[in-house]
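[step 3/7] fold_predict: job queued, chain A
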Amino acid sequence: MATSEGALARTVDPEEDRILTVPNAVTAVRLLCLPLFLWLLFGAGEQTAAAILLGVLGATDWVDGYVARRWHQVSKLGKVLDPLADRLLMLTAILATVVYGAVPGWFAAATLAREVLVSGAVLALAVAGARRIDVLWVGKAGTFGLMFAYPAFLLADGNAAWQEPFYVFAWVAGIGGLVLAWIAAVAYLPPARQALAEGRAARRAAARGAAS
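[step 4/7] structure written:
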């Protein structure tokens, strides 16, 4: 009994229950900036400022996760909050940019369909008891490209000469990001099946251990 209790103590990290951590604060700030982005774009009419803010929010996508790992501040809240912030940021960027009229509807629909598909799959796997799936590099690269494409589309929306390079960049980053994002969606299928099988096996083993 002492051995099993010691093993349990080593595997359960009480610090993961922390809420007030630096990475969680970074994620919270990124979330709070979304209403500011919408106000700048639709309320104040500051298209350029809104696009720059959106670009900064996308470029800092890695900061909270890096800080959590670097300074050993990984938490249960952070594991939920970080991907939630990423999804909300992407959805806000898609919907706001298409409503503003700065991006073609078909491109926004293709991006949105991928986001809905992946988010729905993640939720379904969690409900089914699958273990957590590691993010694939191709998915990160796709998201990174799209995070820069939508601010670039906003910056390029106009007739000024300085906006033309942003229009070209938006399409290069956008098409590349979209292709990689859909490749990642397909590539997640094998690890998703494995994660589901392993998660269910772990639950059955835990149930047998509790019964004995």
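[step 5/7] annotate
Confidence is low (pLDDT under 50) at residues 1-12.
The chain has nine helices and no strands.
exit 0
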